[in-house]
C-alpha cells in the first residue's frame, strides 16, 4: 500500500471532512482478517463525503463546461449516464444559488459595516426615543409603545437612508412631581 500522506497531498482540494474520510480509508486494514462490515462502512462514508463535496461538483461542472458528455463523466465515476446526470445536474444549480446567496450576505455585511463606521446612533432625530421617554416619564418602553399605538402619545416613525428605522415620541414627557 502507498503512503497515505503522499496520496492525500496529491488529491485535489477537498473539504477537511472528505479528506479525513479518505485518510481513514487509506489507513484501514483491508486484509481478510479485518472486519468486513467496518470496511464497507468506511467505503460508504468516503463515497458519501465525496458525493457531498463541492469540489467533486465543481470538477463535474468543469468537465461539462469543457464539453465532456454525461456518459463519459459517469463512466469515469463508475456510474451510468442517467445516475450521473441525476446526481449532479440539479446540484450545479444549487451550488450557483448558494454562491449568489453567499455573495448577497457578504454585501449586506459590508453595507452594515459601512453604516456602523459612519454613525452608530443618529443624534438629529426629532423628539425622543421610546427608551428616553420611558425613563423620563417613569414608564416601561412597552407601555410607551402601547400609548403610541393607541394615539395617546404623538409619535413618528423615522427611516434613514441606510434602512435603519426609529420610533420617536413627539409628545414632551410629563413634568416630574417633586415631593
Descriptive notes:
The chain is built from eight helices and three strands; from the N terminus they run ααααααβααββ. It has about 180 residues and is mainly alpha-helical. The chain has a three-stranded antiparallel beta sheet. A hairpin with a 5-residue loop joins strand 2 and strand 3 (about 165-170). Helix 5 (about 70-75) packs across helix 6 (about 80-120) and helix 7 packs across helix 8. The longest helix is centred in the middle third of the chain and has 38 residues, at about 80-120. The N and C termini lie far apart (about 90 Å). Residues about 1-10 have low confidence and may be disordered.
In short:
This protein is 62% helix and 7% strand.
Spatial order of strands in the largest sheet = 1-3-2
Percent of residues in helices comes to: 55-70%
Overall pLDDT confidence: 76
Order of helices and strands: HHHHHHEHHEE
Whole-number tally of structural domains:
2
Number of helices: 8
Class derived from helix and strand content? mainly alpha
C-alpha end-to-end distance? 91 Å
Fraction in beta strands: 5-15%
Main sheet record: 3 strands, antiparallel
Low-confidence stretches: 1-8
Shape: elongated
Rg (C-alpha, Å): 31 Å
Could you give the count of β-strands? 3
